[in-house]
Each structure stands twice: as structure tokens, then as C-alpha cells.
User: Fold this.
Amino acid sequence: MAQRTPWSLTGALRGMFQKQTIDDDTWDDLETALITADFGPDISEAVVAEMRANVAKYHTEDPKDLQRMLRESLEERLSRLDPTLHLSERPAVVLVVGVNGVGKTTTIGKFAKFLHTHGRSVLVGAADTFRAAAVEQLATWAERAGAEIVKPQQQGQDPASVAFQTVARAIETGTEIVIIDTAGRLQTKGGLMDELTKIRRVIEKQAPIAEVLLVLDATTGQNGLAQAEAFIEHAGVTGLVLTKLDGSAKGGFVLAVQEKTGIPIKLVGQGEGIGDLTGFTPHVFAAQLVG
Assistant:
């Protein structure tokens, strides 16, 4: 039996843009494609209205013009927030937060590799001390990334003390960037946020926190965002990392999550390999979505 090709926004739009002319079906097809790609109904409706207005304004019936205008519109919307990682402090301390299961540990490994590839020395702190498996998994990823790691000295050690030891080690050794893993779940959200507040407090006694990155699983879309709202509300999140962003089937979530949270996407993971995490570039991403 022939294998079915997965749906993608790029593929859906390609058929639309290869037509001879823009017609009434174009607008229904465009809105359906955007909603299917997880832009959400509000953004999809707004983008279609903007494209209709532009087509009328420029008196065009050429689908290639529509393709160009759509690409430019999405790029402009994606560029409203600054995706730059702010890592100029020494050490630059990055807290990584997010619910369990989104790929937080693997993301830290990939981020360490990303930084190591760009010539930065990296120290990872395993402050998710509630799961022994998390510490061992993180140690494996750190080794693959060429990064040092500070582990708990005993099981169940206070996460804040591990974070403190990690930053102290970085200062002592002159390490440029520190990445601290944190727990994704405790018995109560209040307890989890209190723990993060404590981690922040002990770190800031030694060095400022450069970034708080929230990891989201792109395949879970709005549900994943709802799960992470406590972090957005309480953890001082400065940037988003989207994992599992394979293809363009869920590409619209990138824009939807920025517009909904007001927090920029700074890193995207588009595969399983250790090198599959990159900085977010609105121009490139819009081109990938629209073709």
C-alpha cells in the first residue's frame, strides 16, 4: 500500500499558487490551509482579510503576487518581537523551564551543542533533582555536546543548591555560559513556581540571569501553551523554544504563540539530532512556510 504524504502548509499553498488566477476559491482555500497549520481562527481570518485588501489595492489576479504578499506579511508579523538571545554577561546564566514531556532535557543538550559549535564554553546544571532519570539523561546529552555538567551530590538534593554550585563552578573556571535544567512538575503549580523563585534568588546572589527559556512542544499547539501558562505568568520567561517543529504542518503555531504570549521565539528544534536546534530567523521561516 502506498504511503500517504503528510499534509504540509507549503504543499497546500503550492497548489493554490500554481493556479492561473486568483478566484473565490482561493480565499476559502487559504483560510482552510492557515487554520489547518495551527495559525488559529483569528490570525487566519486577519491574514486572509489583509491579502484580500492587498489584491484589490494592487489590482492583481496573479497568484504569484499573492504568494509574495503572504510571505512578506507573515515575515512582518513574525518579526514584531526580537528573537536575539542575550548572552553577553559572563557567565551568562540561562534557566530552562517547561512541563515534563516537551523535550526539555534534549533541548538543553542541543542548545549546549549549538553554543559549543559557536565557540562558547558551556556548563550545565542538573537542577531537576526530582527525577533521577532526568539527571542521567542530561549528563548523556551534555557529554555529547562537549559540555561540563554539575550533578546533585545526593538524590533529592535541593535544586537551588545545585543551581548555586553550578554558577559558582562557572565563575571559578571562567565558563562563558551556564544552562540550568529545572523541574517540570511538582505536586502543585504553586510549589513549582516557589522552587523556581528560590533558584532565581540563589543564582542572582552570584550572577544575573540572562535568559529564561520556556520549552514548548509545537505538536501539542494550544494545549501545550495552556499547560505552560503558569511558567509564563510566574517564571519571568524571556524567550520561547519550540521543539518537534518538523515540516510546516504546525508552522502556524510559531506565529500564534508569539502573538498570544507577547514572548519572542528564540530557538527552534526541527529534528531529533543533536545539531537540529537553531536560532529563529523570521525571514527564513516565512520563506519555508510559504515557499
Notes: Strands lie at 92-97, 122-126, 148-150, 177-181, 209-217, 239-243, 265-269, 277-279. The radius of gyration is 21 Å. The CA atoms of residues 13 and 135 lie 44 Å apart. The longest helix spans residues 41-57.
